[in-house]
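This is your field. Have a critical look at the following sequence-structure pair:

***
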Amino acid sequence: MGRAIYKSGKQQNNLLFFLFLFPAAFAFLMVIVIPFFMGVYYSFTNWNAITGTEVKWVGIQNYRAVMSDITFLNSFLVTVAYAILNIIVLNVCAFFMALLVTSKLKFKGIYRAGFFLPNLIGGLILGYIWQFIFNNAIPAFGGMINFSWLKEHQFLADRYLALLAIVIVGTWQYAGYIMMIYVAAIQGIPDTLLEAAQIDGANYRQRLRHIVFPLVAPAFTVSMFLTLVNSFKQFDVNFALTAGGPSGMFMGKAIMTNEFLALNIYQTAFSFRQLAQGQAKAVIFFIVITVISLIQVWVNKKREIEM
C-alpha cells in the first residue's frame, strides 16, 4: 500500500515537472530547433521566401558561392580580429573593475551599479549615441584642447580606427556584465586564505598572481566563452555605429571593410534577397562559432587543471 502511494506521488511530481517544463520546451522547439533544421534544408535549395515560388534542391551550390564570396572572407577575417581584440580588452577591463568594486573602496556599490548600467542600453541606441560621440564630440574636444589629431581624424572614416571604435563601444557596454561574474568569483575566495598569505609576507601582486588568478579560473572560462560568442554574434552595434563601413578594397574588390559576419549574413539575405545563400552563410557561421567555442572551453579547462 505504501509503495503504491509513493509511486503515485512520484508520478504526480513527474507530471507537474513536465507541465512546468512544457511551455519553455515548446517555445525552444518552435523558435530554435525546428527553424534551425529548416534553415539547414533551405541552404541546399534556391529558396527566396516568395510565396508560390517552387523550392528546388540545388545541392552545395550555395556553399560554393559563399566560398568564392570575397565579402564573406573579409567579414570572417575582420570578425576574428574584432573577437580577439574584444576578448582581451573586455576581460581585462572587467577583471580590474571587479577588483576595484571588491576592494575596501568607499561607495563601491555605486560604482558597481554604474559599471553595469551600460549593459541595460540597447545596442542600436548605443551605436547611434557613440556615432555622435565619435563624429562630433571627440573632434570638438580635440579643438577645445588644441589637439589637432583628435580634431582632424574621423574614427569611423578609417577602417582600423572604426574597428577600434567598435571594440571601445562593445567593452563599454558589456564589461559591467562580465565584471559581475568576476565579482562573484572573487567574493568566493576565503578571506582567511588571503590574510594568511599577507601574514606570510606576500604582497598584493603575489596574492593576485598565486591565489586570486587560480581560484577565479572557472570565471575566466565562463567569461571568455560569453565574450567570444558575443563578439562573433555582434550585429546591432556594428549596424548602428558604422553600418559595416567605411568602404575599401580587398583582393581587388570594393567592400565594406568592417562588415562583421552577422551583418554580412543580414545584408546577403535581406538587402540582396539571396536568402538561400544567406542561410548557407548562417550554417557556416554556426559551425565556426561551435568549433571555436569548444576549443576555447577545452583550452581554458585544461589551464584550470594546470593552475
Notes: The mean pLDDT is 87. The chain has 13 helices and two strands. The chain has one domain: 63-306.
